[in-house]
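User: Hi! I'm a student and our assignment asks us to look at how structure tokens line up with a sequence. Could you show me two examples?

Assistant: Happy to help. In each example below, the sequence comes first and the structure tokens follow. Example one:
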Amino acid sequence: MKKIMSWLLIAVLLVFPVLSACSNKSGAANFPSKPIELIVPFAAGGGTDTIGRALAEAMKASLGQEVVVANKTGGSGSVGMNEGLHAQPDGYTLTMVTREVASLPMMGLAPFKTDDFTYIGNVNTDHIVLVVSAKSKYRTFEDLMAALKANPGKLNFAASAVPNYYAIPFAQAAKADFVTVPFQGAAPAIVEILGGRADFGLYGPGEVKTHIDSGNLRPLAIMSDQRLEGLKDVPTMKEKGVDVIAMTYRGLAVPKKTPDEIVKKLEAAVAKAVKDPKFIDFMNQSFAEIDYKNAADFKAYIDNDTKALVPIVEAAKKQQKP
């Protein structure tokens, strides 16, 4: 009897991995079979949030399941990204990652490493717009620069994240000194500018377009090598003698152990979503550039950006020292 039981146990142990593998393959084959959560690590109403919601709607059409946005704020994006990283690696939790996925680990401000994620694809790259309130006395970029030079360390900059990788290169190139006031996303930061409690801000075009269109914000300059479509009257900082470019990117990532079959399905869904006419129309209306990169290209892009961030991060670390 003992001999028979031993053989049965061996048989079960041999068969179990096969059954498990079959189950995993079946799960990947049926993916997705329920709604998917998309974690946006910044506040509702900001550029990352609005693009995330438009992308979720477009992916819903290609995946045949609801893609539900959940805002998980804190730590300049690290809280939401960390939660997404530690979700079940089954494809049912996606994370919207921004440039902070590279910069925060370099600063030691995130409980993860950039390479801890599997990257699905990039959907957007935005160059940064400098804005003030429409009620501000600073009517031109030159006006603001003169005030910064005349009042070092006095003007308030409303930051959508800290460290702020738009403000640091701007301060370096413009030789300007100002107070950085931190917020969890562009939406609450812009409220401070509209309320007259902050003097200026640096944000993505999609984050400020509505306020520019409504006449509540005044764009003074763009941190790009060329003027933006839809903001043709707004000069680049380079035109004004400040040689600086700054941008952010937005894409999707999943936990490292997510099965390859599911990663490929999600990658295909993103590739299809960025071609959705409604998504294209939303991005055009938001002055947000569609910049699709597949999984491999997005990973390479982040690797290259990590190298480019080194001098900026070094400056940020110096700022944080007492």
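Example two works the same way, sequence first and then tokens:
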Amino acid sequence: MPDAAAEPGTAAARNAAEEKSAFSHPAVDPDSTAGYGDHPDQVIDFYAPQGVTGPGEAAPVVVVLHGGSWRAPYDRRHISPFAAFLARRGFAVASVEYRRGAEGAGAQGAGGDPVAGRWPDTFDDVAAALDALPELVRQHLPRADARRVVLTGHSAGGHLALWAAARHLLPADAAWRTDRPAPLRGVVALAPIADFEVADKLDVCGGAARQLLGDGALFAERRPYADPALLLPTGIATTLVQGRADVDVPQAVAEAYADAAAKAGEVVGVTLLEDVGHYPLIDPAADACAVVAEEIAQLAW
């Protein structure tokens, strides 16, 4: 793992350039949008697969959960070029929006950044979206095969993808718990905030994990309901894709999750990309984005 602290200027400059490239693409409008609840953020954008031809041929579904530290200013629009990129690769894509940090009064955290996430709304929404997805896919993606679903997500969205695949392992009193594993082909989590203990120690994304769950005793009380590293083994094929040069969500976070999985008797794949930071994983102009598509294809097809 590169020592980002040894060359802070270089690491920061690389991260800024990668972020600029990823956010330089115009947002791509979906083919259709549907609600899974009454709140304006409870919607899913659908991108029809391109290049799928032949009678009876259907495309696997990729469910995309965007990142942005669970903070309100970052919505699904910034990941729409990535969703369209996957559609051009022949996948049927469902990009999920969900409620994020508070807006208006109380929206700023102690450090001046927007508050990360809402408890329990963020989790309510992801669970509801995944539960509604099979019927919405049938309505909005007629060329999709709802029996072949892969979850992917970036950063905070990577956390949500891992969490959604582990709902059957939640404590018995969790409202989001399911009685069986989700019918998924797998999960491809991109630079995920996958272990809240390590993320908290490293102050990942300005303490976003602690803001999401709540400070003090709340952080410890809610971790069993929200931390993917405590919800193992899932029994679902899982791969983490991580840039070694990521300074936003460092490699140590992914490694901690993989180690926790191994201790629980589960093998989690970890694909480490040299000289790649946080944002190229969702940047259609970056080679790393093609690697992500291949990882998804290996599980989906």
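Here is something you could point out in your write-up. Confidence is low (pLDDT under 50) at residues 1-6.
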